[in-house]
Structure formats: structure tokens, C-alpha cells
Design brief:
The chain is mainly alpha-helical. The protein has helices at residues 3-12, 14-32, 40-65, 73-89, 95-118, 124-143, 153-160, 165-192, 200-222, 229-247, 249-259, 261-266, 271-297, 308-318, 330-349, 354-377, and strands spanning 162-163, 227-228.
Length: 379
């Protein structure tokens, strides 16, 4: 097989290649830790650690698809997480009101960044860089450089709580039924519009594989304490954003803006409004990630979110999002986040030096972008 053919195959089956890479990473760390890496307890911790990066990646993938970048998300995560801790510890706000205030603030700050980028034509790189410095400064000034603790049990539950095992089983059944229904609906719609319908056995195999994955996922986590609440939130975001990007006009416009902004504008789409809302969504994801991070640590830390923007961006690129914009998927970004979290978790278990962890993650980011460039240039 020629180099060009290898590039074409890899470009078409990136997600499969990523899943194989995850399997190899898990096998290696399991071997090095004598099976400790794949215990239910560690996998539960791994998925909870992944949740913050995954939530950020859900928003970041939309920003990158739209042809922009946001370097402020780590600092904004820290700021909003600190605000949540202050509102909880100092002002004793009820959880619902605390969530509303923090999410609203995230939306406002995200849309402000979007306004500067879309309407004032300031490059998003500069807006993000300025926000990264400004938000971190506001966080340090607001907290006085001190950790805000301890937060209430209700808030802690968002980051440390678990779904009861019986609810986990019910969730598995619902997700499997949803998969079955959506697959059948897709077949009916394709037949209705005279489009090629995949062989029945292929769809059957796909549904069975998904069912097995769900069964293993729920049984493994239930054998520890249950599905972590942050993971449940991440699954909900996966479903929501996958629907938005594939089944809505707004989702199609995001891809169109990133692919060819001028042609999209000439076709009558309000490109500025699309970018404004994409950054607004990113701000809400920063708020959610900040809340989960504060809850997981049971405190608001002035260093929270440090370098989180790089993990989120790396997760998107590793998951197949094109740095040129116009291409990418939510599930790909979350698989990329799982790769990053697996490396962090495994290297920490092996007591690998921090500098080596940074070198490995940086090298993988460069490799992911090189693969994107080479596979696209080879088409």
C-alpha cells in the first residue's frame, strides 16, 4: 500500500485509529501498573478527571470549526469556578441560584469575546490572549490569591457525586433503546428519500456493539460507586451538541462559516451572529467546567484552570478537528480528551516527571496537527 493510500485510509477512519490508540495506551499502562490502571476505581477517577477537559472541548470544537480559537478558556474556567466558590462560601447562595449566576456570567463573558471578534474584527487569538491574562488577574484579585473553602455539600455533589447503580442501569436501557430507535429511523428516512440503505446486518452489528459498550461501561462503574455525576453531565452534553451540529440549521451554519466564511455571508447567513453565539456557548461551557472543577476540589483555587485551554485545544485536534476550520465532531473531541486524560492518569500512576508529561502531550499535539495537514494534502 502506498503512502498516499495510507493517508487516505487514516483520514477516513481517524476515530477507529484513535480508539485503537486508546486501547494500546490502556494496555501499556495496565501492563506497567500490574492491572492497577484498569481497575473500576481508577477508571472512575480517570473519567471524572476527563470531564473538565471534555466539557471545555465541547465548546472549543465549535469555536475551531467556525475558524476561530479561544485561549482564555482556562482562565475563564478558573474565574467562574472562583466566583461559584465565593457565592457559596461567603454569601451562602442556594445551589440553583449559584448555578444561574455563574452560567449567566459565563454566557455574558463569552458573548463579549465573540462581540470583539465578530463585530470589532479583533483576531480571536488576540481576544483570547487578552482574556487569558485579564480573567486570571480578576481571579487573583477577587480571591486575594487564597483558596476559597470549604464549599457546601450540594455543590460538591456536582463534582464528587455518583448516580445510584439502579439509575445507571436505567440509563443504559434508555440509551440502548434510543440507539435502536435512531438507527431504525435513519433506515426508514433513507428508504423514504430513495437513498442507499445499509445492509440490515451492518446496522445490527453497530447496535450490538454499542449495547455491549454500554453494558461494560455501566457494569464497570457500578462495581465501584456508580456513574460519576460529571461523566453523566458529559454524556448529556455529547448528546445535545451532537444533535445541534448534525440536525439543526445553526449547526450546519457553524461548519459553513468555518469552511468558507465569505461564501456563507453572500448566501445570506449572518456570519457575525453565528460567531457571537459560538463564543457565548464556549463561555457557558467554561462556567460548567469551572463549577465541576470547584466541586471536584471542594474549593475555589486561584490556580484552577491553569493550562486547561491547551488540553481542550489538543483534545479537539487529536479528535480530528481541522485547524483550518469547517471540520470536526463532538465525539471526536471527547475521544481526544480521553486520550489526554489517559496519558495524564497513566503517567501520574507511574510517577513520571511533570516535565516528561508536558513533553509527551506537546509532542502528541504536534503529531495530531501534522496528521491533519498530511491527510488533507494527500487527498
Amino acid at each position: 500500500m502506498t503512502t498516499l493510500n495510507i493517508k487516505q485510509v487514516f483520514g477516513r477512519y481517524k476515530i477507529i485509529a484513535l480508539l485503537i490508540a486508546i486501547a494500546l495506551i490502556w494496555a501499556f499502562f495496565s501492563w506497567q501498573t500490574d492491572g492497577g490502571f484498569v481497575t473500576p476505581r481508577n477508571l472512575s477517577n480517570l473519567l471524572r478527571q476527563m470531564a473538565v477537559t471534555g466539557i471545555l472541548a465541547c465548546g472549543m470544537v465549535l469555536v475551531i470549526i467556525a475558524g476561530e480559537i479561544d485561549l482564555s478558556v482556562g482562565s475563564l474556567l478558573g474565574l467562574l469556578g472562583g466566583v461559584a466558590a465565593i457565592l457559596d462560601v461567603t454569601y451562602h447562595l442556594p445551589l440553583a441560584l449559584n448555578l444561574a449566576v455563574v452560567l449567566g456570567l459565563g454566557l455574558a463573558l463569552g458573548m463579549f469575546s465573540g462581540y470583539l471578534t465578530a463585530y470589532k474584527l479583533i483576531p480571536s487569538f488576540i481576544v483570547g490572549l487578552g482574556g487569558m491574562l485579564a480573567f486570571r488577574g480578576i481571579l487573583l484579585g477577587t480571591t486575594g490569591g487564597l483558596t476559597i473553602a470549604p464549599v457546601s455539600e450540594h455543590l460538591v455533589y456536582l463534582g464528587q457525586g455518583y448516580l445510584p447503580p439502579q439509575f445507571g442501569i436505567a440509563l443504559m436501557v434508555v440509551l440502548f433503546a434510543l440507539t435502536l430507535g435512531l438507527t431504525w429511523r435513519q433506515r426508514v428516512n433513507r428508504a423514504k428519500h430513495a437513498l442507499p440503505v445499509p445492509a440490515l446486518w451492518r446496522d445490527a452489528v453497530k447496535v450490538i456493539v454499542i449495547g455491549v459498550v454500554l453494558l461494560v461501561f455501566v457494569r464497570t462503574l457500578n462495581s465501584y460507586d456508580g456513574i460519576p455525576v460529571p461523566v453523566l453531565l458529559l454524556l448529556a452534553l455529547l448528546g445535545l451538541f451532537s444533535y445541534v451540529t448534525t440536525q439543526t440549521v445553526f449547526g450546519r451554519r457553524i461548519y459553513s462559516v468555518g469552511s468558507n466564511m465569505e461564501a456563507t455571508r453572500l448566501s445570506g447567513v449572518n456570519v457575525q451572529a453565528v460567531k457571537l453565539w459560538v463564543f457565548g456557548i464556549m463561555g457557558v461551557m467554561c462556567a460548567l467546567a469551572g463549577l465541576v472543577n470547584t466541586a471536584r476540589l471542594a474549593a475555589g483555587s486561584p490556580s484552577a484552570g491553569n493550562m486547561a485551554e491547551l488540553d481542550a485545544i489538543a483534545a479537539c485536534f487529536i479528535g480530528g478537528t481541522s485547524m483550518r476550520g469547517g471540520s470536526g465532531t463532538i465525539y471526536g473531541a471527547l475521544i481526544g480528551a480521553l486520550v489526554m486524560a489517559s496519558l495524564d492518569n497513566g503517567m501520574s500512576m507511574l510517577d513520571v516527571g511533570t516535565y516528561w508529561q508536558m513533553i509527551v502531550k506537546g509532542s502528541i499535539l504536534v503529531l495530531a496537527v501534522w496528521v491533519d495537514v498530511s491527510t488533507r494534502s494527500g487527498r
